[in-house]
Amino acid sequence: MARYNAQFQTAAAIANNTAFAWMGYTTCAARLRRCTLGVANAGATIVSQQTSVGINLASTGTPATPVNVTSNNMAPAAGTPVSSTNKLTSSWTTAPTLAAQTTDAYTITFNDQLLGDLPWELLEEFWFSGPGLVAAGGITFVNRSGVALPASHYFTIAVEWEE
After folding, report:
1. Tens-digit pLDDT profile for residues 44-81
2. What are the boundaries of each domain within the chain?
3. CA distances for 78 relative to 49, 74, 75, 81, angstroms
4. Beta strands 72-73 and 3-9: pairing type?
5. Labelling 91: which of 69, 97, 138, 163 has CA 20 to 30 A away?
6. Which CATH number is associated with domain 3-71+86-162?
7. What is the pLDDT at residue 93?
């Protein structure tokens, strides 16, 4: 399987229970390998708080005009780069249908002055797209902090996946 990565920063002050990234809405089989999350502030001191990001299995949705973040092929220099089918999407016109917070596949909780970093390697496998999963579903990354991020604060997200 080819391995890819992508990253971006969200808009500021993301509201609670708001999806800010979506990937895997295609039918190409793919598995998440790493998710790194942080919080930054545009030019000021970060307000210390606990933040949570839920990884929610979306049940329906069509990104009618998705804005895909640039994906990077992580093939070695001798490898043949191929473009990724599953894109990390930062905005869309038809939002994915989210399940309740209690059904999140994972919740990553961290202090916003630190970093949340979860690897799914070795025996852990997190398939988020492909046969047997909901068509046009994929996974969404949702602010589950209980409150909106403070003004000027935004999430940074970096993901690695294989397909």
Report:
1. 888 889 999 999 888 776 665 567 788 888 876 656 65
2. 3-71+86-162
3. 44, 11, 8, 9
4. antiparallel
5. 163
6. 2.60.120
7. 75
11-46 residues labelled b (16+ CB within 10 A) or e (exposed): ebebeebbbbbbbbbbbebbbbbebbbbbebeeeee
Q: What is the DSSP string of 89-116?
A: EEE-SSPPPPPPGGG-SEEEEEETTS-E
Cβ(8)–Cβ(90) below 8 Å: yes
Phi, psi of 101 (to 5 degrees): -55, -35
| Residues 104-146: tens digit of each pLDDT | 988 999 988 888 887 777 667 777 766 666 666 788 899 999 9
**pTM to 2 decimals?**
0.86
